[in-house]
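for the record, two folds in this file. i put them one after another cuz i was lazy. first one right below, seq on top, structure tokens after. the second one comes after a little note so u can tell where it starts
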Amino acid sequence: MCILYNLVGILLLMINRNVRCEVYTSVAVLEDVINTETKIISSIEEYIRLESEKLDHLNRYMKRYQEQNNLALRNIEDYLENPLNIYLLIKRLTVELQAVEDLIGLNNVEKVSSNLDLYKNRTDFPTVQDFNGTIRSLAVMQDVYRLNTSAFASGQLGKFKYDTELSSWDCIQFGNHYYEKEYYNYSHSWFEEGKNRFSRKFNEFGETNAHLNYVQARIKEMDEIFRKNNSLVNHEDRETELFGEHCRKDMTPPIEILSKLKCKYVTNNKPYLLIAPFKVEEISMKPRILRFYNVMSDSEIEKLKELAYSRFETAKISRKGIDLALDSSRLAKVAWISKTTHECVAKISERISDMTGLTTRTSEPLQTSNYGVGGYFKSHWDFAHPKFFNISTLARRNNGNRIATLLFYMNEVSQGGHTVFPLAGVIAKPIKGSAVVWYNLYPSGDADNDTRHAACPVLTGTKWVSNKWLYEYGQEFLRPCELDPHATGYDFFK
């Protein structure tokens, strides 16, 4: 109402300035008052028009919010399986909500504004950084899986077609992201899609003639770049190409390799395992990679998720020495859970010893991870590679290098999320309750470079895993050295 009060106040000042006598004593003066009243009525009408336009905008936002929220509440898990829904959710609660706040702020509605501030101060409320991060992760997903831009914007993700579609404004944001990265082929396709969708009015947010002019200028600029360079291709290193190829393909080992792989019931000389032996499958001979089935129960999985949620932090990468830092090569939330936290964690730790024949006394706590929209982990080694870590750094760890890795899959991913070993040509799909196990080091302590691996982006759905890394110290008599420095060492199948 402050706008109306200000308008009326100005008009009253005009009356006071021009009239120095008692108004009611002169009809001539009252004639001027009627004219002034006409101006006041016009001002009120203008105020009502502006407020009605503002309310119309707010109603359109509210209708869109309610439609999407009702859709999500029908089945939250299914709703969040679609990464485009996640993108649009974060968009609504960041850039669109800011537009709503600006509209509300024009009327100084303190109660509504204070409520919005209260919600936004929650630690789990998305920020503009989340919005930009979602675009980055979806861009990685598109690049790895070679998703067609038009199909992607129409909700086609791999084998699934969703009703969710992106607007012209959304396409422009993706075009800008790729443009800044100098991925002009993708950028061009997104700007073209944004131009084509402009007239369809999928979403009125941000769709103005200024945006259309901007898109046309960008397309013209990139057409000139392509004309000069005569290339639309962004060149990648061979390892990145292999990573993408493995993530895109449902690869089966050649018959000459497949015929040598075995499945067995394994007891590891444990008497109680004679009743319920481990079910183990070889998925690679070099490097030696095994999959153990049914080694984490549903109840253990739910308990680990519960324990992890309150401990989540953004995943960090060790680059030099033992220092950890945030890095774009991994997109996930992680939680470190020690075996003293809950009895189920202690039981899992004991089971790991039974599976591998190694001690967990010098191991790291269990790391439970959740990969969100487009979540991935680029190619890396789990061990500290001599090329990047010096001996004194490893000595400071007090337990040596990571000798073995156990990767537990806590759910099955709708699409994507495979673990790939690009140098070895091996793929491990997420199978709930199973664990993939491999040695990072030879018995000599030398690094096995073929264990370099990566986590493919989650295309649809979510991904939960738990990692356990076992260290060298304490394993001297459990995995002794051999004459052959590159021998496979301890045989899981004994």
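(here's the note) second protein begins now
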Amino acid sequence: MPKELPGFYFDAEKNRYFPSSSKPDGKARSSKPHLQEVRATNHQHTPKPLSLPKSLSPTCHRSPSVWHAIQRSRLAKHQRERIAATHQVMSAQLAATRAYQAIPVPVYPGQTLTAFAAGAYEGKVWSLAGDSYGVIHAFDPSPISDFLSVPEHTFQHSWTRAYQLDSHISSICSSDSRWVATSFSSSILIHDLPSNRTVGLSPSPHLACDIWTSNLRNRSLVLGVRQHALLMQDLESLRDARRLETQSDVFALHQEESLVYTGSRNGSIRRFDTRTRAPGLTLLSEEFTKSSNSITYLNVIKDWQLLVSTIRGTIEIFDVRYLQGSRPLLALLGHVNSYQPKLPHAITPSQSHFFAAGLDGRIRGWSLLTGEPLSCSSTSPFSIMEIPGHQTHAVDTPTSLFAVMFEELITSLEITQVRHELCLFATSGSGLHRFILGRP
């Protein structure tokens, strides 16, 4: 007679102990469902069986890896093992995202959306969308309690044309209770939410010409412009604005406490100390400049890792403490880019997962702990959902984040945390697309 062990049961047929949580209820099911059952399940948008082949179900909500990760988390003896198992569960949940809405934004005929930002302030969520005509569309603030359940038809008709700049909106960024929008022809719009006050700035061509990107941290604003970056430590004043010389157009920016990182068209990465007037320190030597591999995204994660995305489609993580001639610690494979400097990226607030829009109209995601993709790349053709560039009506249907292909270029990605849920927004054509991450 086998002994009873707490948390385990004895299988007489296999003559082994197994965790009690894995004990089958009633008659065991076949581990390989028939293809007809799989297609019927897909048609009804219900959770797929555990043992579906990856080629048919690239984003299974309850895949074997999730089950094993949960078991490892329960049985782990060391903190490191529990952290890894918990991260794997989180990755599987993100890969299972199917909550999707497509919301048309009332742009003028022939115009497209070029930038988007959203945030929460005083119990409400605000949203801004900029277009190629220079219009900034504002969505009526929604209570946080209602934002995740707003019907698509309500979302569609709640936009107003709030502001007009002189050329297409090149970026929208936010920090705390402020947001900043820029046009490519160097107009800047600053809005303070507590006072509901808006300030417009027009830097001289010497300071800023062709604004590619922007980054806001508290009251410090950095603009990526032609041949240099422009640092404004006092957000609303150009009086003490400082040029950060890069000798090349700046496509990517990141700010830390007193540091500014710039990524340029010529592939150079520089780090400027805002406490001094010293020139920027060149990082990674000739890692990207020797092949003119333009930098399209920069971020410092976990305080010591530099995340770099390039125009050639490479996404790599370097050790920020040893950047001279260092090799990447991790490479995120599968990103598609070959010439587009404005393909957007987004990172989760916990800095654990990363998303990038590809030149092929697909969104891909990775774990920043392991480098593994959140969805297998070999998605079957019948599971791909093609999204037209110009949305004429709202759509609210369960669709996998990684099985969506946009007809037009994806122009912005934004991750916004609303209470305990994460929303990923994407703009393409005239449509705004929202995925609630982790919700099946």
